[in-house]
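Example record

Each entry pairs one chain with its bound ligand, zinc ion.
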Amino acid sequence: MDAKERGGFALPDLKLYYEAAAFCWLKEWMLLENTDILDLEGFNNTFGWHAYLWYDKIKVHRAFKNHIVRKALYNVWIRYKDLLESKTPRWLSPLEATALKKLNMEAEWLKYREILEQDGDKLKLQSYEKLKPKVRDWLHYYQIMEVYKQDRKIGFQAEKSKLETELLEPNTKNLSRMYNLLLKWNTQDEIVKSAMIKWAQDIGHNIMFADWEWLWNTGIKFTACNALKENIMKMIYRWYMTPVKLAKIYHLPDNKCWKCKETEGTFYHLWWTCPKIKAFWEMIYNELKKVLKCTFPKKPEAFLLGIAGQLVLKKDRTFFMYATTAARILIAKYWKTEELPTLEEWQMKVIDYMTLAEMTGRIREQGKETAKEDWKKFKIYLKNYYKIEEC
Ligand SMILES: [Zn+2]
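Structure tokens for the complex follow.
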């Protein structure tokens, strides 16, 4: 649906328009560059702006919301905060947040994107040596370190967020960019939104709207088989029982993972981070590389949700969807046990789906040709596999 049609009669949705306008205003609080505006709007603030935006200082300093504009803007921000920034944002300044508020304060506050550095697959605070020219003294560094340790618990946004690319960076069209961004969120229902937030928190970056849209509109339709569709829906909505959920419901003392019995059995641990399940996915990943005869990054959204995006060629995506769904259905089969599916089980499952897919093709009268094309590589792979086995 076109953005302008939403509000009916070719008018934009007024509520969204108001919220988008609020974000254009909030932009100054996030960027901390225009000290004149900031001094004017925050003349009686006790803490830095980022303390209110990110660190919940509103609970300590309620008067912040006595200001009519601040209150309105703050409420809009809170409504979208988790959706727009599921991890500690790159634009956040732990220094500004912890500084006590004075007028005419320095305009250049160090942001997380300037003081963190890549350490393996994680982001960590740069050393004192590196930050020395930028901080006042070692005590100052120590203060930043303390905030950093807290923020590390929810993790850091590694790539640019939508908020950054649509609002903070561009100097033009902020209103319409924000309007379109909020519109996309508002067309999703609440359950979907909360599922999207949880997925973003787990995999450590936001899955783009376009990818979710693709999953709902095209991805789910890859098969006529309900068992396969059901698995994808269950994954999106995270409907699998976990040791953590069970322990909460029945007040059980043990909430450890059924497979490794060491770590808390959260949804994401059971599906992706558990060392045992990791080994299983590694095996599937290696087989997929053999089938597709190419290499690609091993991303959780591709294996758990079937969102392969640009990772695999367009003509391989249907097969990829079947292959990963087969793996997940097998994991679900051994859900509450210590066991894991074997390679042969996975191959058999995929062969089942191949037969099924050919039927799907017939039902939809797509002609046999498309189905044949989808499975060509897999058939070659099977031939090679069983030849090696016979030797
Ligand atoms: Zn485990």
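Residues 86 and 198 are 8 Å apart (CA to CA).
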